[in-house]
Target: 5'-nucleotidase SurE
Amino acid sequence: MSKPLILVTNDDSIVAPGIRTLISVMKEIGDVIVVAPDSPQSAMGHAITINNTLHIDKVNLDPDLEHEYSCSGTPVDCVKMAVREILKRKPDLCVSGINHGSNSSINVIYSGTMSAAVEAGIEGIPAIGFSHVDYGWHTDFEPIKKYVKKIALEVLHNKLPEGVVLNVNFPKAEKTIQGIKVCRQAKAMWMEQFDKRTNPQGKEYYWLSGEFVNQDKGQDTDEWALENGFISVVPVQFDLTAHHAIQIVNNWDL
Amino acid sequence: MSKPLILVTNDDSIVAPGIRTLISVMKEIGDVIVVAPDSPQSAMGHAITINNTLHIDKVNLDPDLEHEYSCSGTPVDCVKMAVREILKRKPDLCVSGINHGSNSSINVIYSGTMSAAVEAGIEGIPAIGFSHVDYGWHTDFEPIKKYVKKIALEVLHNKLPEGVVLNVNFPKAEKTIQGIKVCRQAKAMWMEQFDKRTNPQGKEYYWLSGEFVNQDKGQDTDEWALENGFISVVPVQFDLTAHHAIQIVNNWDL
Model:
């Protein structure tokens, strides 16, 4: 049997330790093609580049790989480029990450890592976004490699339900991993504080910052899992219809 | 009773005819505050600005308005700025648009217009994104103003279920409006074609382009509604958990 074809991307850029780790794991289970951003694209959500040009460059950061490309666009652009322009056939799996920082809970919606996985899902490709709660550039990914491999193999084996991709987050390195937990995303949000400063010309500007607030006490959430040392796996959908609300709005006087 | 406080934003920038129309309608029903991008932000999805600074400027395009601001960020940044930095209290309604171009079906996920509405929803603000299928800058919004007003008033009156915002699209101007239809988003996608060109220095670059493909024949979809002259209203959720898939993935050997 031929090896599975695996597309690897991320949002921290092609040189990030997280994607290099992900590539090393995927090489053990399939033929790997990398198409990843040439610069950091964190928090780009599902943005695509329509008002600017796109560039791709063949690179060779990993001498084992024949097909490795850096792209000037967003993570979603990378997936579109890979599928339409670079790949000869639809890949068997798309993996995105390993993100340097959490994409649990509401963060899934801001995340370039997860948006790349979602875009692959829209294309009908089984897809997984991997993120590590520790956001440091020098996070030790070694202890989680076996779990990344296990989850990828399970997705290749079982496929995913139509319209679903996986959002996988790894707990802080200081926690002993208790196992893998399939969860719902916690109902949480960011309380932003804008840090107001003055530039050398005297004009005010802001930096977005803030505090993550989780008021969801459920033990079936990704936040609970991560807090308790579990790897969280949330099935994520991209049909955004709130089906339960259709009847409610239908009862209005529209 | 005091008038409702209404936050208005968009993704086509603060000078777009679509948002100026939306402002004119909202002034009839409430106190209006505008915080909108200072440049076009189409297809920015749920992107936020974390690796760059943000600027806001008080502007006065509409002499009736005391509070009108242009912001250097994305549509989602605009909502965050409005809620955390500009507004004294939580608004009663947030409206985004009127977008110059369709945000029906899968386009909701790429749309800056809808991401602004979703961000307001995350903040617990009743929110609506309005889009017109005609993408021209000089689209005649006059015939749809009464529907924009009606839908906004209904949301103010009924509120929205928790975790739900509305995605409203108006059909092509050439169609006679048949009424308002509450729908699900059609299962459709973009088949991209990258237009490959060569720059003056001989280097290749690409423009993203493509064709929208709808293979969803359902008559309960937004695409069907728009095609048949209805205004489509899709309730949209931002909890992305695919709840139905949790049990499926739980049965895997993880």
About this structure: The radius of gyration of chain B is 19 Å.
